[in-house]
Amino acid sequence: MIMIFDILTLFPAMFEGAFSDSIIKRAVEKGLVSIGIRNIRDYSDDLRHQTVDDYPYGGDAGMLMKPEPLAKAITAARERLIGNNPAVVYMTPAGRLLDQDTVKELAERESLILLCGRYKGIDQRIIDNYVDMEISIGDYVLSGGEIPAMAVVDAVTRLIPGVLGNMDSAETDSFHSGLLSHPHYTRPEVFEGIRVPDVLISGHHANIREWQREKSIEITKERRPDLLEKFLSIDNKSIT
Fold it and tell me: Domain range spanning residue 201?
């Protein structure tokens, strides 16, 4: 099954470099992922200036994306993806945090329409009538939804079967298990006087797994105690 991303944006060129290399490029070449990038301005009623924004009611500063072009762009995307059960995802600071659980949920969909806002955001009526999910990538302000959309595509693509050469790679990433990842080492065995931990070159797989688990817990406790608390609360896990 192919995963389809349909991205609605005012700045299509921003995605060219992001999707032209590495894992995403290979996923597209393998036919595992399809990415369409659509310019919202193409759906403007103003053919001359392609206007997509206007002043907000209420006197707030800044501009707001108009509902008409957005409604047309989303409707066209849904028609393109008819039969693929598309979900319209609006990238916004007010949305649900993009954590690994959310990524897994998105990866179960057949297709995603990613709506990238700009300016002060979009008309609320579009959110009420057209958007299925709102997602944020963190508690900070960006110039638009393009970078968050890139993050969604990258994170979801990694979970699609066949994209990574070895799914064990994804399963040992930070957050996949609910913890931060343990330290990683490669050759040489000694670098600047520091040796790779003996357990990792011992060949004893049970001991290696235990060391990795202990280090993941240790790092998570130090840097993200909120994650550790959540991890331990699920099914009454114990770190002993």
Answer: 172-236
Write down the pTM of the prediction: 0.86
For 115, left (φ over 0), alpha (ψ -120 to 50), or beta? beta
Residue burial 53-85, b: 16+ Cβ < 10 Å; e: rest = beebeeeeeeebbbbbbbbebbebbbeebeebe
Condensed to tens digits (0 to 9), the pLDDT of residues 124-168 reads: 999 999 999 999 999 999 999 999 999 999 999 999 999 997 656
Q: Which helix (H) or strand (E) holds 157?
A: helix 146-157
CB-based contact 93:139 (threshold 8 Å): yes
* Of the residues 106, 133, 157, the one at which a domain ends: 157
108, two tokens:
């179960």
